[in-house]
Write a structure and sequence with these properties.
This protein is an alpha/beta fold. It folds into two domains: 216 residues, Alpha-Beta Complex (Spore Coat Polysaccharide Biosynthesis Protein SpsA, Chain A); 99 residues, no CATH class. 44% of the residues lie in helices and 15% in strands. It has an eight-stranded mixed β-sheet, sandwiched between helices. The chain has a three-stranded mixed β-sheet with strand order 5-11-7. It is globular, with a radius of gyration of 20 Å. The chain starts with a strand and ends in a 6-residue tail after the last helix.
Length: 333
């Protein structure tokens, strides 16, 4: 009998953080049930990733479906690989440095029982930096008063907007996921999973979708400089929202709302992350092109993005101090 849930983790050369993630998973008693499968796709790591997985399996007695790619497929290719390794009815994707909040697996199982036609659940997350402490309250990625249950994919995508790129919130019918045709063409976009999700939702209208108000995942909000932010969000994500989504039959007004929210709330902190990174710097010409490819004609881009791009470093630091005073927190700082 196939498992109900496959926890699917793509990883590459992060043995230490993977060990922390697996140790945290072991504190969830539901993990040991036969209805929960643990799948790990190793993207040709050269560190001790394989040993970490073996030690975890030996220590906990939990079988792990582990596969090591012959070569590095990139993050998109590895997400594709791990989703096709899984055998469960539902796919719960996880980054190797994120965590499940206490009770998350029980809550997801309850949602399946309550909604037998469940297609997708956005497992809302809390953001953290540094060391994760499950007892600490975290700011939510999506702030809604009550859990959303709907058959309207446009409402779901508008609600989760840019967080449709957050891997550790994806709980999705695996058969619907792998049935999306020609998925390999999205590899290299840096938002493979978002491309597939949009097509899953557009192609299965009428099935139940959920966005939880409670936090079921914990997202690490630290930028190391290794992720191509402007390619992923300025180019790929906004290209999907502006150009491809309407052709999939998704509502233009909802997609425009996603675009404007991304310009006003999503991209500014990302620009700050890059400019305040390990080596503070100005944006390159290519980053400018990617950032404004789908936004240059929008007044909100000139109001929200341009000032942050042009501010001197001293102005950036002053802006961050002001933001902390006003907002009291920052998801991306």
């Amino acid at each position: 009998m196939a498992p109900l849930i496959s926890i699917a983790i793509p990883t590459y050369n992060r043995a230490t953080v993977l060990a922390d993630t697996l140790s945290a998973l072991a504190t969830h008693p539901e993990l040991m049930a036969d209805e929960v499968e643990l799948v790990i796709s190793d993207n040709a790591s050269t560190d001790t990733t394989a040993e970490v997985v073996r030690d975890f399996a030996a220590r906990t007695g939990k079988a792990v479906r582990y596969s090591r790619n012959d070569r590095n497929l990139g993050i998109d290719g590895n997400i594709h690989a791990v989703s096709h390794l899984a055998t469960g009815r539902y796919l719960l994707l996880m980054s190797d440095d994120d965590f499940l909040r206490p009770g998350a697996l029980t809550r997801l199982s309850e949602l399946v029982r309550q909604h037998p036609d469940l297609l997708f659940c956005f497992a809302n997350g809390g953001s953290f930096s540094g060391r994760y402490d499950p007892s600490v309250a975290l700011p939510s990625l999506i702030q809604i008063p009550d859990t959303m249950v709907t058959r309207d994919p446009d409402a779901v995508l508008q609600t989760i907007w840019i967080w449709s790129t957050f891997i550790s919130a994806f709980f999705v019918d695996r058969q619907a996921w792998v049935a999306v045709p020609d998925q390999q063409r999205f590899i290299g976009s840096d938002i493979y999973l978002t491309h597939v999700l949009y097509r899953v939702l557009a192609g299965n209208r009428g099935r139940t979708c959920v966005v939880t108000s409670e936090q079921l995942s914990a997202a690490r909000m630290e930028y190391t400089g290794s992720f191509r932010i402007f390619h992923a969000f300025g180019n790929s994500f906004l290209g999907l929202v502006c150009d491809e989504a309407p052709r999939l039959g998704l509502d233009k007004a909802a997609m425009r709302a996603v675009k404007l929210a991304t310009i006003r709330k999503g991209l500014p902190p990302m620009i700050l992350m890059v400019r305040r990174g390990l080596k503070p710097r100005r944006l390159t010409w290519m980053e400018w092109r990617l950032l404004f490819r789908h936004t240059w004609w929008e007044p909100s881009a000139w109001a929200y993005l341009l000032p942050i791009c042009l501010l001197p470093q001293s102005g950036i630091e002053a802006l961050m101090r002001l933001k902390r005073l006003v907002v009291k927190r920052s998801l991306f700082a």
